[in-house]
Amino acid sequence: MAAVRIGMTMPVMEPGLDAETLHAWATTIDDGPFSSLCWGERIAFDNPECLTFLGALAAWTRRVPLVMTVVVPQLHDPVMLAKSLATGDLLSQGRLTVALGVGGRHEDYHAVGADPSTQTMRQLAERAETMKRVWAGEKLTESVLPVGPPPFRDGGPSLHIGTTGPKTIRSAARWADGVAGVTLDLDLRKQSELFDVARSAWAEAGREAPHLATSFWFAIGEGDAPRAQVTRHLHHYMNWIPSEFVDAIAPTIGWAGTDSELAEVLRRFADIGTDEVHLIPTSTDLEQLRRAADVAAEFT
């Protein structure tokens, strides 16, 4: 069985967050066996703004790699986004990885006045190229000095593609260093096929093998409580879907069960060559985090 690393996502999509809760999660993740601390971007939602949060996480942690599992470049000016991410890389001393994606919600585009017609991989790739030019210290016009600060690492943060689609994965092989996906139903056959697509696409592009990561919602416990926890979370997160439809799909989304059952699921992801699994919490309860840390310790 190949090794698999276990990362933990911050509970940024839970309601009622405060600074104390977020700080406690960040420092506990940093102290634990987790391979990464993760979070993503949404605009028209009550989660923390992802770039401001990057600065806080860089200050709150010392060890754990920081992984932004999705940032949508089309929602930002690419030069300012590059400057913000370089600052985060500097503050975290090179611990930052960024997964770029086109985003799944048009209301996020509308909220910031972005054009939904730019929600394409071509537009994403063009913005990624601009960001890399900024990080390389290039002058973008003859009349302007290079945009700093220089990132901590030469070339800037590692860029991954945040997606679940084979076509999108293939199109990112030229510029991305890895894949940061998500599996809703933990279908290992489908996940394995996507990983094979990525391996082939990177090889055809003459690139080193990509870092292969996926993520899923989780709740640890006994009896019916974990599944009920996942369902409550989905009702909040999938607030654009009628409640009865969420109830219909909730039994098959994410994972719910005991500690030992979670360890077994993670072993099956290791068997298909997953480099890293990012667990997504469905509660702000620190006990969930501690139990997950005990499971993750089995894989270190």
Automatic annotation (TrEMBL):
Gene3D superfamilies the UniProt entry points to: Luciferase-like domain
Protein name, as recorded: Oxidoreductase
Keywords: Flavoprotein, FMN, Monooxygenase, Oxidoreductase
Domain of life of the source: Bacteria
Pfam families (UniProt xref): Bac_luciferase
Residue ranges annotated for the Luciferase-like domain, each copy included: 21-245
